[in-house]
């Protein structure tokens, strides 16, 4: 404005200046809401700021943290992916994305994201630890599925039991492993065992179609037609 004063530009500049003051105020409120564990309130405030400051990686990372706390991991991933692009060498964003995918049971995407972290910093301790864990689990699941395709059901069961030992903390992997063990038992005509394992899966996921089909096959083997 000093170099080229005009009434129209002054109006626009004053409008932008007051907007920037307002955004700073909202930012203070958002940080305060986050610290007070009002994550929903923080998200609403950050939505307003990010509508204007769309390229701010740190604000996106803060909103991602709020989404994680609110149990909305897919929205957190979206913000973290944007933050990974907006900030150079953002290993932390890739690490968090990988962690979220892992907790959701998507070991393949988790492995892909943690590799991106290690491309940026091969000595990143957290990423390397997570990488070793996900890689081991991923390999066990891939091998088990290969055994199933070959009809080697006992070998597949052993491999899925190993996978459950590799990851005992995240329930989704145990449920998936049991679902596949139930399938192997049914296919290898171990009907009584199949019914037991399939029932365990269905207690956790009553509408699991695969477990229902495999248990139905096992019931047929036992001549339990009503069931």
Mean pLDDT figure: 95
Number of helices: 11
- Shape summary: elongated
Measured by DSSP, the beta-strand proportion falls in under 5%
Distance between the termini: 81 Å
What's the SSE pattern? HHHHHHHHHHH
Number of strands: 0
Low-confidence stretches: none
Structural class: mainly alpha
Give the % helix: over 70%
Radius of gyration: 25 Å
The major β-sheet equals: none
Key words describing this protein structure:
mainly alpha, elongated, single chain, 227 residues
List the SSEs and their pairings.
Elements (H helix, E strand, L loop, with lengths): L6 H29 L3 H14 L4 H13 L3 H14 L4 H14 L2 H14 L4 H25 L3 H14 L4 H17 L3 H14 L4 H13 L6
Helix pairs in contact: 1-2, 2-3, 3-4, 4-5, 5-6, 5-7, 6-7, 7-8, 8-9, 9-10, 9-11, 10-11
Protein name: DNJC3 protein
Organism: Eudromia elegans (Elegant crested-tinamou)
Keywords: Disulfide bond, Repeat, TPR repeat
Task: Tell me what the structure shows.
The chain is elongated, with a radius of gyration of 25 Å. The protein starts with 6 loop residues before the first helix and ends in a 6-residue tail after the last helix. The relative contact order is 0.05. Helix 2 packs antiparallel against helix 3. The longest helix is centred in the first third of the chain and has 29 residues. It has 227 residues and is mainly alpha-helical. The mean pLDDT is 95. It is built from eleven helices and no strands.
């Amino acid at each position: 404005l000093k170099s080229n004063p005009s009434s129209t530009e002054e109006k626009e500049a004053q409008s932008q200046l007051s907007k920037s003051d307002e955004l700073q105020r909202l930012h203070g409120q958002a940080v305060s809401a986050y610290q007070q564990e009002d994550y929903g309130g923080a998200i609403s405030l950050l939505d307003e700021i990010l509508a204007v400051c769309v390229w701010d990686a740190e604000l996106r990372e803060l909103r991602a943290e709020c989404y994680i706390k609110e149990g909305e991991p897919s929205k957190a991933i979206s913000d973290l992916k944007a933050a990974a692009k907006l900030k150079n060498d953002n290993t932390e964003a890739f690490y968090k994305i990988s962690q979220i995918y892992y907790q959701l049971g998507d070991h393949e995407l988790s492995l892909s994201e943690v590799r991106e972290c290690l491309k940026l910093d091969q000595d990143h301790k957290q990423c390397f630890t997570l990488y070793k864990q996900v890689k081991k689990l991923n390999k066990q699941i891939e091998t088990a599925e290969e055994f199933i395709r070959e009809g080697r059901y006992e070998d597949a069961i052993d491999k899925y039991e190993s996978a459950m030992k590799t990851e005992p903390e995240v329930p989704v992997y145990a449920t998936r492993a049991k679902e596949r063990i139930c399938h192997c038992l049914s296919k290898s005509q171990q009907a009584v065992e199949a019914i037991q394992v399939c029932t365990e899966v269905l207690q956790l996921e009553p509408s699991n179609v695969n477990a229902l089909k495999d248990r139905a096959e096992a019931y047929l083997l036992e001549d339990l037609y009503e069931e």
